[in-house]
Design goal:
alpha/beta; Rossmann fold; Helicase, Ruva Protein, domain 3; 3 domains; 17 helices; 7 strands; 59% helix
Length: 341
């Protein structure tokens, strides 16, 4: 298996392989690599030298490989979410199993033909590495798993974009930027470009620029609200809540996000007390591990008993709202006031 960085390096150096399996959760980087493959391949005429395959026509794959690309040296076949690489449950789909075996055998026996006449790319959401088809492609071609990027990898990517435009950003501002915008690569790239335009060539992105220009994620704003709550600053806590409502953030979503946030603080408190791994306790993905210190810091504002009471109050509010007993905004503001007193 090849890393994302090495695949990107190969494509940047204009090296195109004849067979790929690209899969994983980081769809933006996967799609970017897929576009690069398509660009490197050159002119694509649908139905002639460019074929799209999915789960509805995957049985035509072998026929499409064997059909000549009339007037062209090679053919590009992109097979998306075919279901061929999914892990099979106890109840196997006989037809899919047979098709997998057939395609696997064909690729093994005709690897030279494929290398000479086709660029075959499988783009899947998931893939079982124990499957024979997976192993065959790994042996003959390139397999790359697109996991969510770790914080250090995200920072490196953002820095390289800034450097390309001759714009500076220090490490603390960069981390703050990621905390505000989340870890979705498409969102991050859109927001960093906005900041780059504002800073200008040879300029520097500052923390106040991030506050002024970026669209903060709800989860980041909830961190701000909780900071104010922990510091007993009721005026600022209420202002954050009212700003969210003014900006048309659905109030039920605010309630759910607030509840999930305090649940994480409660689990952080318990994990620290019982000396457990916080990342595992909170079920954080690799691209969310940078949040551990923030959760630990915010958990210090509250006693374990207090966090338990806040969670119960939020559950009670949800029940009362759904039964028409209380207005949700008034209820949320009352809870904030209670724990700021």
């Amino acid at each position: 298996m090849i890393s994302i960085e090495n695949l990107e390096k190969e494509l940047k150096n204009n090296h195109l392989n004849s067979m790929y399996l690209l899969y994983g959760e980081e769809l933006f980087l996967l799609e970017t690599s897929l576009k690069k493959i398509k660009t490197l391949f050159g002119e694509c005429i649908k139905g002639i030298n460019f074929i799209s395959i999915d789960d509805t026509n995957v049985e035509q794959l072998i026929a499409d490989i064997e059909t000549p690309a009339f007037g062209y040296e090679k053919k590009l076949i992109i097979a998306r979410n075919t279901g061929l690489f999914k892990k099979e449950g106890k109840r196997k789909n006989t037809e899919i199993s047979k098709l997998k075996d057939k395609i696997n055998k064909y690729i093994q026996e005709n690897s030279k033909l494929i290398e000479e006449s086709v660029v075959l790319v499988f783009a899947e959401e998931e893939a079982d590495s124990k499957q024979e088809l997976y192993k065959t492609i790994e042996e003959i071609g390139i397999v790359c798993k697109f996991d969510f990027q770790k914080p250090i990898q995200i920072e490196k990517r953002m820095k390289s974009i800034c450097n390309a435009y001759k714009v500076q950003i220090d490490d603390s501002t960069l981390r703050y930027f990621i905390e505000c915008c989340g870890t979705n690569m498409q969102d991050l790239i859109n927001e960093i470009r906005k900041l780059i335009e504002y800073a200008g060539e040879n300029g520097k992105i500052k923390k106040e620029d991030v506050d002024k220009l970026v669209t903060k994620k709800l989860e980041s704003i909830i961190f701000d609200l909780t900071d104010n709550l922990g510091k007993k600053n009721i005026e600022k806590a209420l202002q954050v809540l009212r700003n969210l409502i003014y900006e048309k953030e659905p109030i039920q979503r605010i309630l759910i996000t607030l509840y999930n946030h305090f649940k994480k603080l409660y689990f952080t408190k318990l994990a620290e007390h019982y000396k457990k791994d916080i990342i595992k306790s909170l079920k954080l993905k690799p691209n969310q591990t940078f949040l551990v210190n923030k959760y630990k810091m915010q958990a210090k504002y509250f006693k374990t008993k207090e966090l338990k009471e806040i969670l119960q109050d939020l559950r009670d509010l949800d029940y009362q709202y759904k039964n028409g007993i209380i207005d949700l905004q008034i209820g949320l503001e009352a809870i904030l006031c209670k724990y700021c007193s």
